């Protein structure tokens, strides 16, 4: 007689719920208003309710991005939207330029290589912003219009690049500018039309105060014409398919509906505060955080810091990893470690979205206390 196994499922067995607050550079802490709407019943994505939702999110994003372009939504992380930008604007014989200063800028290079495209690379040392002069020198040598891939806010180092200057240069040489704005949108100034950005990439989980799951690209009219000539293979991210559904305020594939509901609420919070006031709000958070960190005797890594996060160099005799672990265990506050070669060398403190001076002080007091314990 065969053995019958009876499986008993105990509610929450073995599951440890988070008992800490995120001060990471994405995902970020979510406002109560957004959490509340996330629990609402789901609705069908081919109904008028969804079309109304998508129009609302599209209109709000257009205002925040200062964009007259077309916006397309994907059920993916920000990397998915980066791939969508890459595979839709490039053709197999293109020779794009990738300007990078960190791990996420490196992702543009990896995406190009995945499609067997060999770009020209402009690389700055980690912690330094990309030099506009270097971009101009490279584009000046190009005989035909090219595509420049770069990053607004480099999350791995906290650097804010001068996209406005890049846009002037790409316009001068008739090049296309594609920007990863995932970490910066909503925290750092970024004006798509004014700065001549052809494709701007974003996602839900950072300064837009929503859970992960939705990414998007905002595409200029000029870029849409080039997209029609793209020869790279694509299916899930094919904007020709997305455009047919965009006209009906739909998406071709099943979207993360409740994440879009949360995103709509997060965008409402920003618009209610005011777009310019929102930038100043993040600037104050960033300035305050960096001043407090420097008073602890620590060094800020980036030469041109973002409003979205603060990246702190840690002394070699202390290291970042154990400090992060101790702050989480003792105070219920989670910072982020460095990535790749910066692992254990830096602490990344997120302050984009649902944060305040008081909230940052609570986290920074905890960091200072743990550092003092290690220094004794």
UniProtKB/TrEMBL annotation:
Residue intervals of the Aminotransferase class V domain: 27-339
Name of protein: Alanine--glyoxylate aminotransferase family protein
Protein keywords: Aminotransferase, Pyridoxal phosphate, Transferase
Cofactor(s) demanded: pyridoxal 5'-phosphate
Organism: candidate division WOR-3 bacterium
A GO biological-process term: glycine biosynthetic process, by transamination of glyoxylate
Keyword set includes Transit peptide: no
Origin: domain of life: Bacteria
Keyword Transferase on entry: yes
GO molecular function: alanine-glyoxylate transaminase activity; L-serine-pyruvate transaminase activity
